[in-house]
Amino acid sequence: MPAAFAKVNEFLYRLDIPFDHLYTAVFLVLDEEPILIDSATTQADVRDKILPALAAMGIDGGKHLVTHRHGDHSGGTPFLLAARPLFKQITLKAGASLGNLEAIPLGGYTEDSMGYLDRRTGTLLCGDAFQFYGVGKYGCGIADAAMYESTLTRACELPICSIIPSHDFIGGGLAATGKEEVDAFLTSAREKWEEIKAFVLPFPTDDDPFSVVAAWKEQYPTLPPLPSMTVRSIRKNI
Question: What is the reported pTM?
Answer without folding.
Answer: 0.96
